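INFO batch 0412 | record 1 of 1 | parsing
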Amino acid sequence: MPKIMVVDDAQFMRVRLKKLLTGQGYEVAEAEDGEEAVKVYQQFKPDAVLMDITMPQKDGLEALADIRGLDPGAKVIMLTALGQESMVVQAIQSGARDYVVKPFDPNRVMMALEKVLG
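INFO prediction complete | emitting tokens
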């Protein structure tokens, strides 16, 4: 069963994603900011990460860099609001594998995960 880490400062987003993913048979861990995401990544060792770009403490771009520093093969999908195109480009250049625009379509989330998990 693949393990997915969900990183978002909005609890309702984490709850919504966790419900979707556990319903599809994934094991899910959560983090509420980039700082926590790096710690949880090291402990949980997820197969893929769904991570918001805009968060307090450490944003998604900084956390992406830290996670890829620990694991250059990390499979990270960024979650972004409309209007954050430049940040998405920066995330992809920094090693993110894909992105999903919020509010997300559950099918788009599952397609992105299937793509990065192979």
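INFO post-check: DSSP finds five helices and five strands in the chain.
INFO record closed
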